[in-house]
Amino acid sequence: TMPGHRFDLAIVGGGIVGAATAREVTKRWPKLRCLLLEKESGLARHQSGHNSGVIHAGIYYQPGSLKAKLCVRGMRRMYDYCDARRLPCKKVGKLIVATREDEFDRLAELKRRGEENRVPDLRLLTNQSEILAVEPNCTGGLRALHSPHTGIADFGAVTRSFGDDFLASGGEIRLGFELASVRFDSAQLSEPNGYPLTLQPATGESVSCRRLITCAGLHSDRVAAMTLTKDDASSDSKTAQSPPPPPSIVPFRGDYLVLRPGRESLVRGNIYPVPDLRFPFLGVHFTPRVDGSVWLGPNAVLAFKREGYGLWDISARDLADALSKPGLWRLLAANIGPGLRELRRVIDTGAMVEELRRFVPSLSRDDVARGPSGVRAQALADTGALVDDFVIVGDSEGRVMHVCNAPSPAATSSLAIAEFVADRANEKLGLGLL
């Protein structure tokens, strides 16, 4: 490659984690020549731009996990960043509402996790009058966990702002660069100032780099497989159920409803159910948006395309890849009932409305319309267990690091994840010595 195509560090993936990581690296080591690569024509075109925009407080996550450690710090950093850049965000709060007595134990477990994770100002509401003081239309609740610091933001705008910061620090962004392969030049590997990694796009000119970090989201397993073998198991995740890297990604689509104009006053903040703690999905909920709209949902069903936001979007490759995973068949077999209920909510909007009426009984079918959809990159073990924690792995040569699993609350935690990745990249890849 020509000198103009050589970089100290390349970062693959222009979502919120990739952009935050690029920003953090150039902030720490401004002399590095850094490149951010994105296959689309702009940043935040997939998960980062197709989510509910919730700034999570850190309640749900197992104490000691990376999610727990990074979410609370990430929440604080996100509010500070949005305030400093005058990006839209608001602390609207959240209620996690128990509508049945058999949910009380799980609600208590969430309170325990939240307190151990040092979620600020978490409070258990033990009767309906306390719930109504926070959400006047939530008449279906018996008990609730109130998180006043849960909020909302426009994560697409945040991602683009991270990109602007990166450019202002001397970084370079190349759009329309769809990574097809990574080639190691063995002659360059022995050169202390060599550029041993060549990144070849599907079309166009290749680039070379000394170190590589990937944050490829829905394609993280495919990108990681370009450089990793199962012997490259230097994982920074503490999740015991994680499969050997790279983890398999299975896409799950979530469809939302929206409140019709004029009905947004039904809720003040986020209203969530008490989730099934066996799964990382949080259940259908009410979410205000920074533009004043309110989203309801989502469901969680297998997507037939990794970037398939429509009901009938199908990729033969992606579908065949998902169906080839033994873990997916084990997951489906063990959860036939919940899976059918999720599927019903796709077909019948009334089924989702009925679920939401547990919390706000005054909600009717006439109050809602079909809304947008998002696709979640879910890492899956061969056993059928969903890999819940963030997973970050490196190659045995100390040249490459992959963010292999970064589901929610990755957007909330993005600035903290970027700090964590930069720390590990300095330790494992020697960024500070380049």
UniProtKB/TrEMBL annotation:
Residues 8-424 form the FAD dependent oxidoreductase domain. Pfam families: DAO. It is an enzyme of class 1 (oxidoreductase). The keyword Oxidoreductase applies. InterPro entries: FAD-dep_OxRdtase, FAD/NAD-bd_sf. It catalyses: (S)-2-hydroxyglutarate + A = 2-oxoglutarate + AH2. GO terms for molecular function: (S)-2-hydroxyglutarate dehydrogenase activity. Residues 230-249 are annotated as: Disordered. Gene3D superfamilies: D-Amino Acid Oxidase, subunit A, domain 2, FAD/NAD(P)-binding domain. Its EC number is 1.1.99.2. PANTHER family: L-2-HYDROXYGLUTARATE DEHYDROGENASE, MITOCHONDRIAL (PTHR43104:SF2). NCBIfam families: PRK11728.1. This is L-2-hydroxyglutarate dehydrogenase, mitochondrial.
